[in-house]
Each structure stands twice: as C-alpha cells, then as structure tokens.
Amino acid sequence: MGQGRGWEGAVLKLLRAKDFTFTVTGSEDVTADYRRVHFTDGGLLTAAGVHPTMWVRLWFDNAGKPHQRAYTLVDPDPAVGTFSLEFALHEGCASDWARTAKPGDTIEATVQGTGFENPDPAPSHVLVVGDPASLPAINSLLGTLGSAPATIWFEGTLDGLPCRAEPGRHEVREVPRQQAGAALVERVRAELPELLRAGPDPYVWIACDTTTTRTLSAFVRKELGVPKQRLHALGYWRAA
Q1: Would you place residue 117 in the very low, low, confident or very high pLDDT band (cuts 50, 70, 90)?
Q2: 15-28, pLDDT tens digit by residue?
Q3: What is the pTM assigned to this prediction?
Q4: Whole-number mean pLDDT of the chain?
Q5: Are 37 and 98 in contact (CB under 8 A)?
Q6: Closest CA relative to residue 134, chosen from 14, 13, 25, 236
Q7: Pick from 146, 126, 148: nearest CA to 196
Q8: Rounded CA gap, 107 and 212, in Å?
C-alpha cells in the first residue's frame, strides 16, 4: 500500500492501514444529485468488523494522480459481505466515478482511523449539525443512540434524500447554504445554547465542511463549555 498513491498513501501505510478492493454490484439515483452505489466488500467487514458511522477511504484517479475521499458505509451486512455508499454529486473525480459506476467495476479502498464510542452516560438529547455529505453518517448515528430525541441542523434541503429521522423524535431544521456556511454557523450559534441547557446529558455531533466544523467546534467547546467527551466534530469536505 502507498505505491502510486503519493505521500497520503505512504502515511497511511505507516499507520498500518488495511487495503481492500470493492466491486460494484449496482447503483441507483436517489435524486438528480445524490447517488447510491452497492458493493461487495472484498473481505472488509469480516476483517475489520462493523461499528456505527464506519467509514472508508476510496482511491480515485484524478487526471493521473491519486485522490482519496472518505465515505460512510450504508447498511453494511457482514453475513453476506455487502454495503452501499452514497455520493452527494458535484464536480470532481469522485462524483464522476459514481455517476458512471456499473456492475463489475472495482475500486481500491483503505481502512484507517475510523471508530466510534457510545457516549457515557447515554445522551438525553442528540444535537447534530450536518449536510448531504454527512447524511449517511447522520443516519447511522440516529440508529445507534437509542431512544434519545435529536435536533438536526441540516445545511441544504432534504427533498428526496434518504434521511432516516423519525418524525416526533427527531427534528430537522433545514438551513440554506449561504456565505460559505456562515448562515449555518449563525443559526446554530443562536439556537444550540438553549437546547444544551434543556437536558442533563446532551451530546453534540458536527460534520460539515472543514471550516464550518472547526468554527462550530470551537464555539461549542470554548464558549459553551461542552466537554470533549460530549462532542464529536469532523470536517467531511473542504470548500473550494
């Protein structure tokens, strides 16, 4: 691993990352801008196990250069070795690959750095900030944290997207993407503090573009005083 993948591949090799080859079995367009691709796992699920919000790095060809992007597994089934990945389509080599993926196509993947620890104590309220890129992880999270209610600030619109929020238990607050994420930051800063005070054991989960995630994470930690064990924050993509 690492040969032909530049410094990123070399670093992952040093970190004892594991490589797998996934094979496409089918695909479907959920919306015009959101595509689900189905795979066999090349032994991944047996070797690595399964946990909530589990993700893998896929390697794409970008004009002859290696390019990696991380994606959350959707409905992994270790018994048969299958899962799906969901792509929020835009410009770029990853989206180009997903648009044309057909049964029999293969793609190389690396597993390293993924993990999940259930919050202890269990959340009294889950407070989520995400967008289409992190929707598969949001769905996985909601299916994991028991009966806790959740409030989700979702940057964009859920129209037609496969959100697994349950009406009556999970509230989704859609926020248009404006000013490179500034509208989302403003909305969360205004509404999150009151919800944090509403229960004894809140849990905050943030996964947006890298800049927005860092801004909101700093706000939650430094200004609202949320301890690090009650906050998960990970930048899912970089704005151009």
Answers
A1: confident
A2: 456 899 999 999 99
A3: 0.88
A4: 91
A5: yes
A6: 236
A7: 126
A8: 30
Q: How far apart are CA 49 and CA 126, in angstroms?
A: 25
Q: According to the model, what pLDDT value does residue 17 have?
A: 67
In a 13 Å sphere around the CA of 133, the CA atoms on its Cβ side amount to: 18
Domain 6-111 belongs to what topology?
Elongation Factor Tu (Ef-tu); domain 3 (2.40.30)
- Tell me the C-alpha distance between 199 and 122, whole Å: 12
- Which CATH number does the domain 125-233 belong to among 3.40.50.300, 3.40.190.80, 2.160.10.10, 3.40.50.80? 3.40.50.80
User: Six-digit token pair at 12?
Assistant: 């992952």
> Two tokens at 61?
């060809």
Average pLDDT over residues 69-94: 95
The CATH 3.40.50.80 portion of the chain extends over 125-233
